[in-house]
Design brief:
Elements (H helix, E strand, L loop, with lengths): L1 H6 L1 H38 L20 H4 L8 H10 L14 H6 L17 H11 L9 H5 L7 E6 L3 E6 L7 H15 L7 E5 L22 E2 L2 E2 L5 E2 L16 H12 L8 E8 L6 H7 L9 E5 L2 H6 L13 E6 L8 H7 L3 E5 L3 E2 L13 E3 L4 H14 L1 H17 L2 H18 L11 E3 L1 H7 L2 H9 L13
Parallel strand pairs: 4-6, 7-8, 7-9, 9-10, 10-12
Antiparallel strand pairs: 1-2, 1-3, 2-13, 5-11
Helix pairs in contact: 2-4, 4-16, 6-15, 13-14
The structure holds 2-acetamido-2-deoxy-beta-D-glucopyranose (3 copies).
The site of one 2-acetamido-2-deoxy-beta-D-glucopyranose has 5 residues, from strand 8.
């Protein structure tokens, strides 16, 4: 080498540079390979990371649905974003939320209803106690053991574990239709904000699809049922009803969080006084949901013969027109509003009752957590499913002959919904979880696959519209203890 270098200094320099060029080349290609590996690893981890939006989850086998069609915003988040939302958001939160005990946080809730600032605790609506007692009765002797709980897993779309009164962990098994999982988990996180440190450790299996699955007839004291939370139950089922996602908003059909939606509906209902409200019964909804009642209802569409007007709600069309015609508050101009169950219970009940019209409720099969507060002829009018049109007609005739009484019953229905503001919804959730926790005969522990979910991680996954609803339903810490049951 040295002798060669005497020959030509430039050749020599080139020869001396060669090894470092070679090193550089190796360095770059290894860097490239490392980056490629990281990229593949990211993709790989992301493709195994399950989210509340439904990433990497199949629809529930007991209630299949088309995920692509159901999701207003398809599951096209970048792999890195999935990882960021799932693994970094809760550890390194970038959004600063007003602390739930910060008084300014209370102002965040622009649409707060008149607040009961009595620090002495009030009494819960009487149906809270009886409902919770009835729903948890199947485990009053056996307690909830890990073995009993394990039986619920095959009916569940997710497992929710709350620890230390402040943290929530999820195991996701199946996707839920639309944004149900996101809003349901958000609701639980708000409960943790509302009563910081007061929610006991619980281990809950939850199904977010419509119909109850735990048949009463299959179980006894000797063989207690698996405890499974969902949005509704029936007299023949032992599923545990829990407030549905729409209390925090339903982004796909433009429904606002409950307090705000109630306020606008009540305001809208006052636009027309009872005397000048349309003297017929009104229903607007989707009849194509495998509901025999809704199908039967179509044949009552005759204001002359049955005193009823039955309208088809076309959500696809409403959605493309920006929901200009579907405002719930503009649907309170009739003296009578019909409630017909859909595929199971329907979230529409609370909006119908909120109108203050006389609610004509067709023999309900399903119960959600608050329908146990309904008393026939006290706060609604019962309609028989077997001679549907005649029954609607006779209710309308009765109401038009007794306008004062009809209006009073309608107002009591509205009153029931007014009493059930979000503060009370959280109180129901609180008491249900407290009573459930008392039945757990084990200390909840995390499974190896459990993942923490927090406000930031949900907002990270939410689309623009969902984020608006989520943020407007942010709860603040309560000044008073929960109502007493
Ligand atoms: C507070 O409590 C008192 C007595 O318990 C009651 O008279 C009053 O109406 C309550 N105030 C509010 C705002 O609810
Ligand atoms: C439970 O009971 C229902 C109706 O009573 C029945 O259709 C179903 O097959 C039963 N399921 C099991 C697992 O026994
Ligand atoms: C019910 O009747 C009204 C008036 O005749 C009509 O506009 C409406 O489309 C009918 N509803 C359904 C579901 O067919």
């Amino acid at each position: 080498m040295r002798s060669v270098c005497f020959l030509s200094s430039s050749y020599c320099r080139a020869m001396m540079l060669l090894p470092s060029l070679f090193t550089l080349l190796i360095l770059f290609s290894s860097l490239f390979i490392i980056l490629l590996c990281i990229h593949m690893a990211v993709d790989d981890v992301a493709s195994r990371t399950k989210t509340v939006v439904g990433h990497n989850l199949d629809p529930t086998p007991w209630h299949p649905f088309n995920k692509e069609e159901a999701d207003a915003h398809p599951l096209l988040l970048h792999a890195s974003r999935i990882l960021q939302c799932s693994y970094l958001s809760c550890r390194f939160p970038t959004t600063a939320f007003p602390s739930s005990s910060d008084p300014a946080a209370a102002d965040h809730h622009h649409h707060k209803r008149k607040k009961n600032i009595n620090s002495s605790s009030s009494t819960c609506p009487s149906f809270f106690r009886s409902s919770i007692h009835r729903d948890l009765e199947p485990w009053s002797r056996s307690g909830i053991t890990p073995a009993i709980l394990a039986g619920a897993q095959r009916h569940a779309s997710m497992r929710i574990v709350i620890m230390g009164g402040r943290r929530l962990y999820l195991d996701l098994y199946y996707a839920c239709v639309q944004s149900r999982a996101m809003f349901t988990v958000w609701g639980l996180l708000q409960l943790l904000r509302r009563y910081p440190g007061k929610i006991p450790d619980v281990d809950i299996l939850f199904d977010c699809m419509d119909r109850p699955t735990i048949h009463r007839s299959n179980y006894s004291d000797v063989e207690p049922p698996p405890p499974l939370f969902r949005y509704c139950t029936t007299r023949d089922h032992l599923d545990i009803p829990f407030p549905d996602w729409s209390f925090w908003g339903w982004s796909e059909i433009n429904i606002k969080p409950w307090d705000e939606e109630f306020r606008t509906i009540k305001f809208g209902s006052q636009a027309v006084p009872w005397k000048t409200k349309d003297a017929t019964a009104y229903w607007k909804g989707n009849p194509d949901v495998q509901s025999p009642i809704r199908t039967a209802l179509l044949s009552c569409n005759d204001t002359e013969m049955w005193g009823a007007q039955i309208m088809r709600q076309d959500w696809k069309k409403e959605s493309s027109s920006g929901f200009k015609n579907s405002g719930l508050s503009s649907q309170c101009n009739h003296r009578y509003k019909i409630y017909a169950e859909g595929y199971a219970w329907s979230v529409s009940l609370k909006y119908i009752l909120a109108c203050g019209s006389l609610a004509l409720i067709i023999d309900p099969l399903y119960e959600d957590f608050f329908t146990r507060g309904l008393v026939p002829k006290q706060n609604y009018w019962p309609i028989s499913a077997s001679n549907l049109c005649e029954s609607v007609k006779s209710a309308v005739d009765w109401g038009n002959q007794h306008p004062t009484q009809a209006e009073r019953i309608g107002k009591r229905g509205q009153g029931l919904m007014e009493e059930l503001d979000m503060d009370r919804v959280y109180d129901y959730m609180y008491h249900l979880l407290v009573e459930y926790a008392k039945l757990q005969v084990f200390k909840p522990a995390l499974s190896p696959t459990a993942q923490e979910v927090c406000l930031e991680s949900i907002l990270c996954l939410a689309n623009e519209k969902q984020r608006q609803l989520l943020e407007s339903s942010l709860a603040s810490s309560s000044f008073s203890p929960p109502c007493t049951i």
